[in-house]
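Pasting as-is:
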Amino acid sequence: MVNPCLDTMRMAMLWREQQLTNHYDRFNLKVSYSLTDLAKEMELPAFTAHTALGDALQTAYLFLYLTKKIAGHGSWTLKKLHQAGQSWRWYF
């Protein structure tokens, strides 16, 4: 049995892919997907890193932010978000 999940890192990758202005942006090696860096980049409230509560709250804020950004003004279900995260592909 497979347990579906929504990965905030894949959601961040999908969001960044949607924001690319040119083909070469996807090869930027300075991109970080750490929870702390994503929260800073997206100007989310900062919580204590590497604690269960802090990381859970940071992930929750990041998830809500990315869900809103990816969905835009449309209506997205959890199933659509899951499928979007699964379809992200590596460009290396």
